[in-house]
Amino acid sequence: MKKFNRIFVMLFASSLFLASCSSDDNSSNESLGDYDNGVFVLNEGNSTITTSSVTFISNSGAVEQDVFRNVNPEAAEMGTLLQSMFFDDTRAFIISGLANKITVVDRYTFKFIATISTDFRSPRYGVVVDGKAYVTNYDNYEVGSDDFLTVIDLSNYTTSRVAMNNWSEKIIEENGKIYIMNGYFGSGTSVTVFNPATNSIETTIPLGFSPNAFEEENGTLYVLGSEKLAKINLSTNTVVGTPITVAAATSAGARNLNIEDNKIYYTVDTAVFAMAANATAAPTVPLLTYESQSLYGRMYGFAVNDGKIYIADGGDFSSDSQIYIYSTTGTLLNPVAVGVGPNGFYFN
Protein backbone atom coordinates (compact mmCIF):
# COMPACT_ATOMS: atom_id res chain seq x y z
CA MET A 1 0.00 0.00 0.00
CA LYS A 2 1.05 3.56 -0.45
CA LYS A 3 1.52 4.40 3.21
CA PHE A 4 1.57 1.70 5.86
CA ASN A 5 -0.64 3.11 8.59
CA ARG A 6 -0.08 1.80 12.09
CA ILE A 7 -3.28 -0.20 11.86
CA PHE A 8 -2.02 -1.96 8.72
CA VAL A 9 1.43 -2.51 10.19
CA MET A 10 -0.24 -4.22 13.12
CA LEU A 11 -2.37 -6.33 10.83
CA PHE A 12 0.19 -7.16 8.18
CA ALA A 13 3.54 -6.32 9.86
CA SER A 14 2.44 -2.69 6.69
CA SER A 15 -5.93 18.20 -19.12
CA LEU A 16 -5.64 15.81 -15.49
CA PHE A 17 -2.52 13.91 -14.33
CA LEU A 18 5.54 10.71 -7.56
CA ALA A 19 5.17 9.98 -5.48
CA SER A 20 3.86 10.89 -5.52
CA CYS A 21 2.67 10.81 -9.76
CA SER A 22 3.94 10.16 -13.26
CA SER A 23 3.30 11.98 -16.51
CA ASP A 24 3.85 11.08 -20.16
CA ASP A 25 1.96 12.79 -22.94
CA ASN A 26 0.84 11.55 -26.34
CA SER A 27 1.64 14.62 -28.45
CA SER A 28 -0.19 13.41 -31.58
CA ASN A 29 -3.94 13.52 -32.11
CA GLU A 30 -4.11 9.80 -32.87
CA SER A 31 -5.64 7.78 -30.06
CA LEU A 32 -3.45 4.98 -28.73
CA GLY A 33 -6.30 3.38 -26.81
CA ASP A 34 -9.25 4.07 -24.55
CA TYR A 35 -7.00 5.30 -21.74
CA ASP A 36 -4.44 7.48 -23.50
CA ASN A 37 -5.71 10.87 -22.31
CA GLY A 38 -6.53 11.14 -18.65
CA VAL A 39 -5.44 10.01 -15.21
CA PHE A 40 -5.37 6.70 -13.39
CA VAL A 41 -6.30 6.73 -9.71
CA LEU A 42 -4.83 3.79 -7.82
CA ASN A 43 -7.18 2.42 -5.16
CA GLU A 44 -5.11 0.28 -2.81
CA GLY A 45 -8.10 -1.48 -1.26
CA ASN A 46 -7.62 -3.53 1.89
CA SER A 47 -6.91 -7.17 2.70
CA THR A 48 -9.90 -8.24 0.58
CA ILE A 49 -8.52 -8.78 -2.91
CA THR A 50 -11.62 -7.52 -4.74
CA THR A 51 -11.32 -4.05 -3.15
CA SER A 52 -8.11 -3.21 -5.04
CA SER A 53 -8.86 -1.37 -8.27
CA VAL A 54 -7.93 1.36 -10.75
CA THR A 55 -10.21 4.28 -11.64
CA PHE A 56 -9.71 6.20 -14.89
CA ILE A 57 -10.78 9.83 -15.35
CA SER A 58 -10.54 11.05 -18.93
CA ASN A 59 -9.56 14.58 -19.88
CA SER A 60 -13.22 15.14 -20.77
CA GLY A 61 -14.25 14.23 -17.21
CA ALA A 62 -15.70 10.77 -17.91
CA VAL A 63 -15.09 8.33 -15.03
CA GLU A 64 -14.63 4.57 -15.32
CA GLN A 65 -14.30 2.43 -12.21
CA ASP A 66 -12.31 -0.84 -11.96
CA VAL A 67 -10.62 -0.49 -15.33
CA PHE A 68 -8.43 -3.59 -14.98
CA ARG A 69 -11.35 -5.95 -14.37
CA ASN A 70 -13.46 -4.33 -17.09
CA VAL A 71 -10.75 -4.88 -19.70
CA ASN A 72 -9.46 -8.20 -18.37
CA PRO A 73 -12.37 -10.20 -16.92
CA GLU A 74 -10.44 -13.48 -17.05
CA ALA A 75 -7.03 -12.27 -15.85
CA ALA A 76 -5.61 -13.00 -12.40
CA GLU A 77 -6.25 -10.35 -9.75
CA MET A 78 -3.70 -7.55 -9.36
CA GLY A 79 -3.29 -8.42 -5.67
CA THR A 80 -4.12 -6.69 -2.41
CA LEU A 81 -2.91 -3.34 -1.11
CA LEU A 82 -1.90 -1.78 -4.41
CA GLN A 83 1.13 0.36 -3.64
CA SER A 84 2.09 2.40 -6.70
CA MET A 85 2.27 2.47 -10.47
CA PHE A 86 4.95 3.40 -12.99
CA PHE A 87 5.37 3.44 -16.78
CA ASP A 88 7.62 2.88 -19.73
CA ASP A 89 6.68 4.03 -23.24
CA THR A 90 3.93 1.45 -23.76
CA ARG A 91 3.38 -0.38 -20.48
CA ALA A 92 2.07 0.35 -16.99
CA PHE A 93 3.43 -1.58 -14.00
CA ILE A 94 1.12 -1.92 -10.98
CA ILE A 95 2.77 -2.91 -7.70
CA SER A 96 0.92 -4.95 -5.08
CA GLY A 97 2.83 -4.61 -1.83
CA LEU A 98 1.10 -7.46 -0.04
CA ALA A 99 0.96 -9.93 -2.94
CA ASN A 100 4.64 -9.27 -3.76
CA LYS A 101 4.03 -8.95 -7.45
CA ILE A 102 3.71 -6.53 -10.36
CA THR A 103 0.90 -6.66 -12.88
CA VAL A 104 1.94 -5.44 -16.35
CA VAL A 105 -0.65 -3.94 -18.70
CA ASP A 106 -0.66 -1.89 -21.88
CA ARG A 107 -0.77 1.69 -20.60
CA TYR A 108 -3.18 2.84 -23.30
CA THR A 109 -5.59 -0.12 -23.58
CA PHE A 110 -5.01 -1.61 -20.09
CA LYS A 111 -4.92 -5.10 -21.59
CA PHE A 112 -3.11 -7.59 -19.38
CA ILE A 113 0.42 -8.50 -20.51
CA ALA A 114 2.21 -10.33 -17.70
CA THR A 115 2.64 -10.91 -13.97
CA ILE A 116 6.07 -10.57 -12.35
CA SER A 117 6.32 -12.32 -8.98
CA THR A 118 9.96 -13.18 -8.29
CA ASP A 119 12.55 -11.35 -6.15
CA PHE A 120 10.03 -9.13 -4.34
CA ARG A 121 9.46 -8.65 -0.64
CA SER A 122 7.14 -5.77 0.22
CA PRO A 123 7.79 -3.82 -3.03
CA ARG A 124 7.20 -0.08 -2.92
CA TYR A 125 8.04 2.12 -5.94
CA GLY A 126 9.56 1.65 -9.38
CA VAL A 127 11.19 3.44 -12.29
CA VAL A 128 12.33 2.40 -15.79
CA VAL A 129 15.80 3.11 -17.19
CA ASP A 130 17.15 1.75 -20.49
CA GLY A 131 14.91 -1.28 -20.75
CA LYS A 132 15.08 -2.27 -17.10
CA ALA A 133 12.79 -1.55 -14.16
CA TYR A 134 14.15 -0.85 -10.69
CA VAL A 135 11.78 -1.46 -7.77
CA THR A 136 12.45 -0.67 -4.11
CA ASN A 137 11.63 -3.33 -1.48
CA TYR A 138 11.32 -2.91 2.29
CA ASP A 139 11.79 -6.59 3.15
CA ASN A 140 11.57 -6.26 6.95
CA TYR A 141 9.77 -3.03 7.90
CA GLU A 142 11.59 -2.68 11.21
CA VAL A 143 15.08 -2.32 9.77
CA GLY A 144 16.51 -0.68 6.68
CA SER A 145 19.68 -2.72 6.31
CA ASP A 146 17.91 -5.53 4.42
CA ASP A 147 16.16 -3.29 1.86
CA PHE A 148 16.96 -4.03 -1.77
CA LEU A 149 16.23 -3.21 -5.39
CA THR A 150 14.55 -5.66 -7.71
CA VAL A 151 16.00 -5.25 -11.21
CA ILE A 152 13.65 -6.41 -13.98
CA ASP A 153 14.77 -7.07 -17.55
CA LEU A 154 11.71 -5.80 -19.40
CA SER A 155 12.49 -7.84 -22.52
CA ASN A 156 11.66 -11.10 -20.73
CA TYR A 157 10.62 -10.09 -17.15
CA THR A 158 13.48 -11.94 -15.48
CA THR A 159 14.55 -10.49 -12.14
CA SER A 160 17.53 -10.08 -9.83
CA ARG A 161 18.31 -8.28 -6.58
CA VAL A 162 20.77 -5.56 -5.54
CA ALA A 163 21.29 -4.93 -1.81
CA MET A 164 20.76 -1.32 -0.71
CA ASN A 165 21.73 -1.65 2.98
CA ASN A 166 19.59 1.39 3.71
CA TRP A 167 15.93 2.37 3.90
CA SER A 168 14.68 2.27 0.30
CA GLU A 169 11.43 4.03 -0.45
CA LYS A 170 10.50 6.41 -3.31
CA ILE A 171 12.62 6.34 -6.44
CA ILE A 172 13.11 8.61 -9.47
CA GLU A 173 15.42 8.75 -12.51
CA GLU A 174 17.24 11.82 -13.76
CA ASN A 175 19.97 12.00 -16.44
CA GLY A 176 20.61 8.28 -16.32
CA LYS A 177 21.03 8.12 -12.54
CA ILE A 178 18.55 6.73 -10.02
CA TYR A 179 17.80 8.57 -6.78
CA ILE A 180 16.36 6.57 -3.89
CA MET A 181 14.82 8.19 -0.85
CA ASN A 182 16.18 6.67 2.37
CA GLY A 183 13.34 7.48 4.73
CA TYR A 184 10.33 5.80 6.28
CA PHE A 185 8.28 7.13 9.24
CA GLY A 186 11.26 8.94 10.74
CA SER A 187 13.86 6.27 9.94
CA GLY A 188 16.66 6.97 7.45
CA THR A 189 18.19 10.39 6.81
CA SER A 190 19.67 10.41 3.31
CA VAL A 191 19.25 9.99 -0.44
CA THR A 192 21.08 7.23 -2.31
CA VAL A 193 22.46 7.78 -5.82
CA PHE A 194 22.40 4.52 -7.79
CA ASN A 195 24.16 4.06 -11.13
CA PRO A 196 22.23 1.59 -13.33
CA ALA A 197 25.17 1.40 -15.76
CA THR A 198 27.30 -0.25 -13.07
CA ASN A 199 24.38 -1.67 -11.07
CA SER A 200 25.82 -0.19 -7.92
CA ILE A 201 25.49 2.60 -5.38
CA GLU A 202 27.44 5.68 -6.40
CA THR A 203 27.09 7.79 -3.28
CA THR A 204 24.81 8.62 -0.37
CA ILE A 205 23.79 12.22 0.35
CA PRO A 206 23.18 12.98 4.06
CA LEU A 207 20.24 15.24 4.90
CA GLY A 208 20.12 15.54 8.66
CA PHE A 209 16.40 14.67 8.68
CA SER A 210 14.19 11.81 7.53
CA PRO A 211 12.69 12.41 4.04
CA ASN A 212 9.16 11.43 3.04
CA ALA A 213 8.90 12.89 -0.49
CA PHE A 214 11.14 14.27 -3.22
CA GLU A 215 10.96 15.67 -6.75
CA GLU A 216 13.46 16.95 -9.32
CA GLU A 217 13.15 20.30 -11.09
CA ASN A 218 15.78 22.02 -13.27
CA GLY A 219 18.75 20.10 -11.90
CA THR A 220 17.70 20.42 -8.26
CA LEU A 221 16.31 17.62 -6.14
CA TYR A 222 13.82 18.99 -3.61
CA VAL A 223 13.56 16.71 -0.57
CA LEU A 224 10.80 17.08 2.01
CA GLY A 225 10.76 15.90 5.60
CA SER A 226 8.10 16.36 8.25
CA GLU A 227 9.67 19.68 9.30
CA LYS A 228 12.31 20.54 6.68
CA LEU A 229 12.75 21.07 2.94
CA ALA A 230 16.24 20.61 1.48
CA LYS A 231 17.56 21.31 -2.02
CA ILE A 232 20.24 19.05 -3.55
CA ASN A 233 22.36 20.19 -6.50
CA LEU A 234 22.42 17.12 -8.74
CA SER A 235 25.62 18.19 -10.50
CA THR A 236 27.50 17.98 -7.19
CA ASN A 237 25.18 15.75 -5.15
CA THR A 238 25.36 18.14 -2.21
CA VAL A 239 22.74 19.95 -0.16
CA VAL A 240 22.53 23.63 -1.09
CA GLY A 241 22.34 26.06 1.83
CA THR A 242 20.30 25.43 4.97
CA PRO A 243 17.07 23.42 4.80
CA ILE A 244 13.89 25.50 5.11
CA THR A 245 11.61 24.89 8.08
CA VAL A 246 8.17 24.06 6.64
CA ALA A 247 6.24 22.78 9.65
CA ALA A 248 6.46 22.93 13.42
CA ALA A 249 7.52 19.87 15.38
CA THR A 250 4.13 19.94 17.13
CA SER A 251 2.16 19.75 13.85
CA ALA A 252 1.05 16.72 11.86
CA GLY A 253 4.17 17.19 9.71
CA ALA A 254 4.69 18.16 6.08
CA ARG A 255 4.44 15.62 3.26
CA ASN A 256 3.21 15.14 -0.33
CA LEU A 257 5.76 17.31 -2.16
CA ASN A 258 4.86 18.39 -5.71
CA ILE A 259 6.43 20.99 -8.00
CA GLU A 260 4.44 22.63 -10.79
CA ASP A 261 5.16 25.80 -12.79
CA ASN A 262 8.07 26.78 -10.54
CA LYS A 263 5.97 26.45 -7.41
CA ILE A 264 6.43 24.03 -4.53
CA TYR A 265 3.30 22.45 -3.09
CA TYR A 266 3.13 20.33 0.07
CA THR A 267 0.56 19.37 2.69
CA VAL A 268 0.26 19.50 6.47
CA ASP A 269 -2.68 17.46 7.77
CA THR A 270 -5.62 18.63 5.58
CA ALA A 271 -4.00 21.88 4.42
CA VAL A 272 -2.14 22.60 1.17
CA PHE A 273 0.72 25.11 1.17
CA ALA A 274 2.39 26.69 -1.86
CA MET A 275 5.56 28.74 -2.30
CA ALA A 276 7.97 29.76 -5.04
CA ALA A 277 10.69 27.25 -5.89
CA ASN A 278 13.35 29.82 -4.99
CA ALA A 279 11.70 30.84 -1.70
CA THR A 280 13.89 31.02 1.39
CA ALA A 281 11.04 30.80 3.90
CA ALA A 282 7.87 28.73 4.05
CA PRO A 283 4.38 30.24 3.97
CA THR A 284 2.40 30.51 7.18
CA VAL A 285 -1.07 30.60 5.59
CA PRO A 286 -2.34 27.59 3.61
CA LEU A 287 -3.61 27.85 0.06
CA LEU A 288 -6.57 25.65 0.95
CA THR A 289 -7.87 23.14 3.46
CA TYR A 290 -10.39 20.36 3.03
CA GLU A 291 -12.63 18.42 5.42
CA SER A 292 -11.84 14.78 6.17
CA GLN A 293 -13.41 12.29 8.54
CA SER A 294 -10.75 9.68 7.81
CA LEU A 295 -8.67 8.56 10.77
CA TYR A 296 -5.67 7.39 8.72
CA GLY A 297 -6.41 8.53 5.16
CA ARG A 298 -6.18 12.32 5.22
CA MET A 299 -4.31 13.56 2.14
CA TYR A 300 -3.67 9.91 1.27
CA GLY A 301 -2.87 10.90 -2.30
CA PHE A 302 -1.83 14.29 -3.67
CA ALA A 303 -0.76 15.76 -7.00
CA VAL A 304 -0.59 19.08 -8.83
CA ASN A 305 -0.84 19.18 -12.60
CA ASP A 306 -1.89 21.57 -15.36
CA GLY A 307 -3.36 24.18 -13.07
CA LYS A 308 -5.22 21.76 -10.82
CA ILE A 309 -4.65 20.26 -7.37
CA TYR A 310 -5.77 16.67 -6.74
CA ILE A 311 -6.42 15.28 -3.27
CA ALA A 312 -7.31 11.67 -2.48
CA ASP A 313 -8.96 10.84 0.83
CA GLY A 314 -8.53 7.30 2.12
CA GLY A 315 -11.89 7.26 3.85
CA ASP A 316 -12.51 4.22 6.06
CA PHE A 317 -10.58 1.78 3.81
CA SER A 318 -13.68 -0.42 3.68
CA SER A 319 -15.96 1.47 1.30
CA ASP A 320 -15.48 3.56 -1.83
CA SER A 321 -14.02 7.00 -1.23
CA GLN A 322 -13.47 10.26 -3.12
CA ILE A 323 -10.90 12.50 -4.68
CA TYR A 324 -11.20 16.30 -4.78
CA ILE A 325 -10.04 18.52 -7.62
CA TYR A 326 -9.16 22.16 -6.87
CA SER A 327 -7.81 25.04 -8.90
CA THR A 328 -4.35 26.24 -7.92
CA THR A 329 -6.05 29.29 -6.43
CA GLY A 330 -7.80 27.02 -3.92
CA THR A 331 -11.29 26.76 -5.43
CA LEU A 332 -13.00 23.37 -5.31
CA LEU A 333 -13.86 22.34 -8.87
CA ASN A 334 -15.45 18.95 -8.27
CA PRO A 335 -15.28 15.79 -6.18
CA VAL A 336 -15.05 12.41 -7.94
CA ALA A 337 -16.11 9.07 -6.49
CA VAL A 338 -13.40 6.41 -6.80
CA GLY A 339 -12.57 3.06 -5.14
CA VAL A 340 -11.38 1.91 -1.72
CA GLY A 341 -8.35 3.70 -0.32
CA PRO A 342 -7.28 5.94 -3.25
CA ASN A 343 -3.57 6.64 -2.83
CA GLY A 344 -2.04 8.00 -6.03
CA PHE A 345 -2.54 9.75 -9.36
CA TYR A 346 -0.80 8.73 -12.60
CA PHE A 347 -1.04 10.79 -15.79
CA ASN A 348 -1.33 9.15 -19.20
From TrEMBL:
Keywords, in A-Z order: Signal
Lineage: Bacteria, Pseudomonadati, Bacteroidota, Flavobacteriia, Flavobacteriales
PROSITE patterns for the chain: PROKAR_LIPOPROTEIN
Name recorded for this polypeptide: YVTN family beta-propeller protein
Record-linked Pfam families: DUF5074
InterPro entries for this protein: DUF5074 (IPR031815), Host-pathogen_enzymatic-act (IPR051200), WD40/YVTN_repeat-like_dom_sf (IPR015943)
Top-level taxon: Bacteria
Span of the signal peptide: 1-19
